[in-house]
Design goal:
Helices cover about 40% and strands about 15% of the residues. It folds into 2 domains: about 210 residues, Rossmann fold; about 80 residues, UDP-galactose 4-epimerase, domain 1 (Alpha-Beta Complex), CATH 3.90.25. With about 325 residues, the chain is of the alpha/beta class. The chain binds nicotinamide-adenine-dinucleotide (NAD).
Length: about 325
């Protein structure tokens, strides 16, 4: 199989590349390195089945030639992370919506019908407090803080575009609403919580909890996510499939901080940071974000193998190794 991955030098995309190379597939990654990095693709950059192009997906001259090569396309490229979303609200909209539109238009014009999986996000459920978030729920977009919700709006627009291309041009599409995904290669630079906590615990610094710490999240290991994404993409349909991809175990951010400290055997304390201080502006956080995984489990055979504790232990080990081998 030929697999094209936009944003494939990023966190999830690089694990997708690794999975497909291990299956003997040919993989082409396009990435502009805006949040991804060469280090993420370094383990397989010399693999003859791997090809990399550094380019902005919305401005990539080879897009129309490359798309017909692919049997499957994962569209992972997007402006992500709370810090970038708040700092660059226009870029969030243009990159995320234009990039998706241009990709789907190229698929349509190519006349070939690869399986297309688009990465959406649990953010689109908005500030709901339901026990579990289901794919058929109404979505909430608050009107009073446009930059805050631009990421969710851009992902919703991507979903609408994807379903429309699928329906009107008979392209087999699927949409993965990804919940908090964690694991190796994720950076804490743009606001992701677990890489930040692990780095702070390993360095003996205070763990910085934003808000009151009672907001609850569900985490899934990226090595489980990519297997599930592969299985979801294999079921792409011209009717379009929307599916939550995540784990339904829920934990408060305060308990997560305690868990990281305990697993690291660290002396770190926990420091509460108000949102205005953390983000430099008021911020509406989502109190709960836990997926209803019934649709996912009806579609895919894979069940998450990584517990949160095992993922945290793995990240602590890697962070200690990086710290101890860093040049003085
Ligand atoms: N990690 C999560 O918990 C999570 C949750 C929900 C949704 N998602 C979605 O999953 C996808 C991958 O996220 P990730 O966590 O791996 O983030 P990431 O930042 O590591 O990956 C995104 C990649 O896209 C690249 N990129 C951005 N704009 C680009 C452009 N215009 N052209 C080419 N490349 C571009 C970046 O350099 C990066 O490598 C994103 O679409 C994101 O919205 C992730």
């Amino acid at each position: 199989m030929h697999v094209l991955i936009t944003g494939g030098a990023g966190f999830i995309g690089s694990h997708l590349a690794e999975l497909h190379l291990a299956q003997g597939h040919k993989v082409h990654v396009v990435d502009d390195f805006s949040t991804g990095s060469p280090a993420n693709i370094e383990p397989f950059v010399h693999n003859p089945d791997f090809r990399f192009t550094e380019a902005d997906i919305a401005n990539w001259p080879e897009l129309s030639q490359t798309v017909p090569w692919a049997d499957r396309i994962y569209h992972m490229a997007a402006v992500v992370g709370v810090f970038r979303v708040l700092d660059e609200p226009i870029r969030v909209m243009t990159t995320n919506v234009q990039g998706c539109d241009m990709l789907l238009a190229a698929v349509h014009k190519g006349g070939w019908k690869p399986q297309v999986l688009i990465a959406s996000s649990s953010e689109i459920y908005g500030p709901r407090v339901d026990d579990k978030l289901s794919e058929d729920m109404d979505l909430i977009i608050q009107p009073d803080a446009p930059p805050r919700w631009n990421y969710a709006i851009s992902k919703l627009a991507d979903e609408a575009l994807t379903l429309s291309y699928g329906h009107i041009h008979d392209i087999p599409v699927s949409i993965a609403r990804l919940f908090n995904t964690v694991g190796p290669r994720q950076t804490g630079r743009y606001g992701m919580v677990i890489p930040r906590f692990v780095r702070q615990a390993v360095n003996g610094e205070p763990l910085t909890v934003f808000g009151d710490g009672q907001q609850r999240r569900s985490f899934v290991d990226v090595r489980d996510t990519v297997v599930m994404l592969d299985q979801v993409a294999g079921k792409a349909s011209t009717e379009g499939i929307i599916v939550n991809v995540g784990h339904d175990r829920e934990i408060s951010i305060m308990d997560l901080a305690r868990l990281v400290i305990e697993r690291a055997g660290s002396d770190s304390v926990i420091e509460i940071i108000p949102y205005e201080v953390a983000y430099g502006q008021p911020y509406v956080d989502i109190r709960r974000r836990r997926p209803d995984t019934r649709r996912l489990h009806s579609m895919v055979s894979h069940r998450p193998q990584w517990t949160l504790e095992a993922t945290i232990d793995d990240l602590i080990r890697a962070a200690r190794q990086a710290r101890d081998t860093a040049p003085a």
